[in-house]
Amino acid sequence: MNLITTEELLQKLDAGEQFSIIDVRENEEVANGMIPGAVHIALGQIESKFDQIDKSTSQYIVCRSGGRSAMACEILEENGFNVTNVVGGMLDWEGELQF
Length: 99
Description:
The protein contains 4 helices and 5 strands. The protein is α/β, with parallel strands linked by helices. The chain has a 5-stranded parallel beta sheet with strand order 1-5-4-2-3. It has helices at 6-14, 27-30, 67-78, 89-92; strands at residues 2-5, 20-23, 39-40, 59-62, 83-87. It comes from Psychrobacillus glaciei. This is Rhodanese-like domain-containing protein. Residues 15-98 form the Rhodanese domain.
């Protein structure tokens, strides 16, 4: 499984790199803020939303601390997606938030 820190992800965002971020937390968690531009797909919904995820784009998967995003990465990798787990999750995120 590919891994990235929140600091490295923020650097990629600041550099204008093209990729997608999927936040797999629950609704009440994302209400506290998400990484700007991230798409919310709760972990329990990930398999039913494959058609909404672009296989040709790198996907960075984030949750609260990194556990659920690791599970989502395993599911997505098994189905042919290019994914990277954001280690530390939103607990470590020091960038802007979108509400």
